[in-house]
Specification:
The protein is of the alpha/beta class. It contains 19 helices and 25 strands. The chain folds into three domains: 299 residues, P-loop containing nucleotide triphosphate hydrolases (Rossmann fold); 120 residues, Domain 2, N(10)-formyltetrahydrofolate synthetase, CATH 3.30.1510.10; 83 residues, Formyltetrahydrofolate synthetase, domain 3 (Roll). It is globular.
Length: 558
């Protein structure tokens, strides 16, 4: 029998009207702004009314380093939310929105898969409620106002060589990484070199995801450092009087989106910063709202725990005052074999020795998450090719690390296949063993923070950074930014900066080639190795197989 695709399963979903989903959480209809029948935004007035309510328990879902074999982190996040509801807990899933770039590239969408999905799948993976378009527009409005200010006399004395604000678009387009603007004569302004980042790497995206309300959003937007004068004094977004108009563009995007899982349980889908080049978590406002409405909130952080979970703990939780009760690390037998040296084409054959050889990658992630004081359980996302001996090898290894590994069949069975994990999460969360603390204190010098992450999380021997990088960090400390956390921009495929180094390597160094100040978001970005803030499309992009069928339905999304 042919296995149904994710989009076929999603299309067969028996969705309930979104007002009914809101009612399950006690959200009155008048506080929901519907976008069609199956999605809605939650009003700011209702969110403000929740202040004073007790918080539910927060559970993070993270994973091993991603491999071409697939891990299923979002699928597990959605499945766990359904599983918790199945065992009698009121649970809400909080995940990020999908970027168009990866959808039409190679990574795919961000709605889960199989029978553990959030719907409407097509709309979530395309334009959804327009949040990303609003973020793109607000970001590029600021870009336009910078060049316009320079054109009309440059009263702020901006040094055109020191404009730090690039443009963005929500698509993978390597041709736009480095460009020259304002060519064509006097009427078009003053030519200068600049470039594009992908929207999910925008500081505006990070600000929206970390802001507590519209007033905080505008304050943070005003704090953005867009350029410097010839004497290297910072020029802020508020100096250009752009923060008000940007806030207007982001007014609706700031409101969390409510949708549902295939099992009609509530899910908040809001924000979408990448975890390899940004902080990789859904919005603070969505997470905090969910915590006021549910017993359990299940959220995820992008890519492996070395990136997403570290930033979730050190940036999101630190900034928002969140205290996670438990963490789930997703792994697969297939990924363990790939970390153990097996080629993707050979993953279907049993190879217990390769599983054991690849497990240290999982072991390091377990130790890292435990290092934040958060109790851990491992979810083995089941594939039909997994054998009992291979599964037993993973369970035995995880037990040696002082944790439990639980086989999960949510992809094929929905919530019925993940009950054991739901019960384990409840035991951990309600056991009172969480003693969360970030990796480093606020007052640690910036370069030492980078070294702490590199040595304790990546197990590197050293951080390599030239004099200009180190002096820039010292200058930011002198300017009052020394208390900021670090957002590491690094390949997601390895603990090192080499994407081909799988497993749990040691004896490596982390080269930091550039640092960027995100003064509005409240962190410093350290760009490591060859990581790009504007991805490119692969040789055969997914866009080649995406289209409409004879019935006008989208085909090829995954």
């Amino acid at each position: 029998m042919a296995v149904k695709t994710d989009i076929e399963i999603a299309r067969e979903a028996r969705k309930k009207p979104i007002l009914e989903i809101g009612a399950k959480l006690g959200i009155p209809a008048e506080h929901l702004l519907p976008y069609g029948h199956d999605k809605a935004k939650i009003g700011q007035d209702f969110i403000r009314s929740l202040e004073g309510r007790p918080d539910g328990r927060l559970v993070l879902v993270t994973a091993i380093n991603p491999t071409p074999a697939g891990e299923g982190k979002t699928t597990t996040t959605v499945g766990l939310g359904d599983g918790l509801n199945r065992i009698g807990k009121r649970a809400v899933v909080c995940i990020r929105e999908a970027s168009l770039g990866p959808n039409f590239g190679m990574k795919g969408g961000a709605a889960g898969g199989g029978y553990a999905q959030v719907v409407p799948m097509e709309e979530m993976n395309l334009h959804f409620t327009g949040d990303f378009h609003a973020i793109t527009s607000a970001h590029n409005l600021l870009s336009a106002m910078i060049d316009n200010h320079i054109y009309w006399g440059n009263a702020l004395g901006i040094d055109e060589r020191r404009v730090a604000w690039r443009r963005v678009m929500d698509m993978n387009d390597r041709a736009l990484r480095d460009i020259v603007v304002s060519l064509g004569g006097v009427a078009n302004g003053f030519p200068r070199q600049t470039g594009f980042d992908i929207t999910v790497a925008s500081e505006v995206m990070a600000i929206l995801c970390l802001a507590s309300d519209l007033a905080d959003l505008q304050r943070r937007l005003g704090d953005i450092v867009v350029a410097y004068t010839r004497d290297k004094a910072p020029v802020y977004c508020r100096d250009l009087k752009a923060d008000g108009a940007m806030t207007v563009l982001l007014k609706d995007a700031m409101q969390p989106n409510l949708v549902q899982t295939l099992e009609n349980n509530p899910a908040f889908v809001h924000g979408g910063p990448f975890a390899n080049i940004a902080h990789g978590c859904n919005s603070v406002i969505a997470t905090k709202t969910a915590l006021k409405l549910a017993d359990y909130v299940v959220t995820e952080a992008g890519f492996g725990a070395d990136l997403g979970a570290e930033k979730f703990f050190d940036i999101k939780c630190r900034k928002a005052g969140l205290r996670p009760s438990a963490a789930v690390i997703v792994a697969t037998v297939r990924a363990m074999k790939m970390n153990g040296g097996v080629a993707k084409a050979d993953l279907g054959a049993e190879n217990v020795e390769a599983v054991r050889k690849g497990c240290p990658n999982l072991g390091r992630h377990i130790a890292n998450v435990k290092g934040f004081g958060v109790p851990v359980v491992v979810a083995i996302n089941h594939f039909h090719s997994d054998t009992e001996a291979e599964i037993a090898a993973v369970k035995a290894y995880v037990a040696e690390q002082g944790a439990e590994a639980i086989l999960c069949r949510h992809w094929a069975q929905g919530s019925a296949g993940i009950e054991d994990l739901a019960h384990a999460v409840v035991r951990l969360a309600e056991g009172g063993t969480s003693d969360f603390s970030p990796l480093y204190p606020d007052d640690m010098p910036l370069f030492e923070k980078i070294e702490t992450i590199a040595k304790r999380i990546y197990h590197a021997d050293a951080v390599i950074a030239d004099k200009a990088v180190r002096e820039q960090l010292k200058a930011w400390e002198a300017a009052g930014y020394g208390h900021f956390p670090i957002c590491m921009a690094k390949t997601q495929y390895s603990f090192t900066t080499d994407p081909n180094q799988r497993g749990a390597p040691t004896g490596h160094s982390v080269p930091v080639r550039e640092v960027r100040l995100s003064a509005g978001a409240g962190f410093i970005v350290a760009i490591c190795g060859e990581i790009m803030t504007m991805p490119g499309l692969p040789k055969v992009p997914s866009a080649e197989t995406i289209g409409l069928n004879a019935s006008g339905q989208v085909e090829g999304l995954f």
